[in-house]
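yo

u said u wanted the structure for the complex thing, so here. seqs first:
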Amino acid sequence: MNNIIKVNNLTFGYAGKPLRQKDGGEVLKDLSFEVRQGSFLSIAGPNGAGKTTLLNLLCGLLKPQDGSIEIDSAMIQQYSAKNLARKIAVVRQEFIPVFEFTAAQIVSMARLPYSDTFGFESKRDKQIIKEALEITDTLRFADRTMGNLSSGERQRVFIARGLAQDTAIMLLDEPTNFLDIKHQVNIFDLLKTAQSEKGKTIIAVTHDINLAAQYSDFALLIGLKGEYKFGFSKEIFTGSQIESLFEVKVFSGRVNDANFFLPIGNFAKDSEKSPEKHKPESAV
Amino acid sequence: MTETLTAKKFVSNIIFFLLILAAVMALCTLAGTQKISLEKVFAGPGKSPGENIDYEIFVGVRLPRVILAALVGAALASAGVVLQVLLRNPLADPYILGISSGAGLGTILAVLSGISFNLWAGSPVSLFALAGAFGTVWLVWTVGRFAGRWQVTSLLLAGVVINAFFSAVIMFLTSIANSNELRTTVYWLMGNITAKDWPVLIIAAICIVGGDIGLFSISNKLNALSLGEQEAQNLGVNIIRIKTVAFALSAFITAIAVSLSGLIGFVGLIIPHGVRLILGPDHRQLLPASAIAGGAFLVIADTIARTIFQQEQLPVGIITALAGGPFFLILLAKYNKKVYWLQ
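structre next:
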């Protein structure tokens, strides 16, 4: 298997605004990892660690200050916006567009990188759009406007657009944010389907370390001081690494093949300091 | 099944809109305080001036005025569509970035200075307004870029500030103007369509139709841009280029329209919304259909303005504002929850 993305000594900071105390105020420093074609990589870490910054670097919205990013054995700077959009599809957190586009119209925008000047969809485009709507189970409300869908449905529409873009790589920024557990699982199942049936490389930034541990092949943990851990998912998502990176106590357990993590704060029922522990028996 | 735009549907919708425009233009050319017969019009001009009055009114007065109204309406409506996308704000209109105040300042300076010349049938008022409009666009652009790298918010703020400043200058100048100069200026500020000479119309038609074709050629990218800049770039749109082209072309056609007819309000706001309600937000269709509908709307409004009173012709801006004000309030109520000013 070859590596479709190669990140070498990547360094990035926001000019003039050091966000935190790393050496030169960088958000990301000397970050290196490679992503295998057709694999599922989860990126996790505390707020402000630079996960979304990394995602924006990988899709070309930001330029690296130092180091390099290689996409499909060419430097990312060598791609035009259009050509990069044929390699990488990006799914961000769902939102309601200002104008009242239908789900089908949103998905058909995925064909923009392949269209000519006036851009009417070809027969083939229509076929790809329909297929994406089917896989994501969004076909039945394809003609409803985005504002009339639930957040879970809207997120699936954006994933459908990502699929219709027909790219080797799909980047997702917290795709399960604000969704209930049923829809969280639903989204991860969908991503896994895209990986196994379409051979897509999936890179998802997520706060959901439990689902990430269950679904991903590889994991990248980024900390607040520029430290990072990269490797096989089951080696990266361990209780001790999560505790040190997120600076929180976790209870970790194991289901068949993956770890799960339960964060425990000072006043949680299972915490030593919890008032529940010191309540007299009669009051419980 | 899924409803997305096909070339066939597009062509039939646009032809439908064009037929309506043609019908409106034909009827409105015939309407007027002076009754004219088509038979006489088709007989052609008489041998000497004044022989065939009907032909002269039709070709020399009404037709140019109707064509100008159609062009100005088309320019304002399509510029409105584009600015609503660029600012991702359903309540934006062609004047939101201050173009109106710059053109207004040019006009009042032309009137007050009393310059009189005739350049290619263009009056000093038109040319000064055009210069003022371009000057303001350049100023807003430069200030906006200086304030923040191509941010929508800084463009908007630059437009508001420059608008406020120029409006103050206009107020000052109108307060020292005499009543005759004042009337010309006030009519201009209210938006007023008058018959222009054919060379002016031809130049305006080339500029506005050309600008609209340019905008139409980026209309599928405007769809992506209306989702936000990051989204558009991830869909392969070179956003700096598209925003520059969209801003420049819409400012250009607005400047042309304003220099010919003054500040006609509401067309650039209500027509895009009306057409969006009928055809949906797909800009490949919305943009040309809005241009055509804007033309038809302004032709009707101007016909009302010139025929409602026997003795006096009203500025067309009064009619569009009377029709547009209530419509705007309805929109405001509808979009109140969805306005993303600072996105």
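Chain B has one domain: 7-338. Chain B has 14 helices and no strands.
cya
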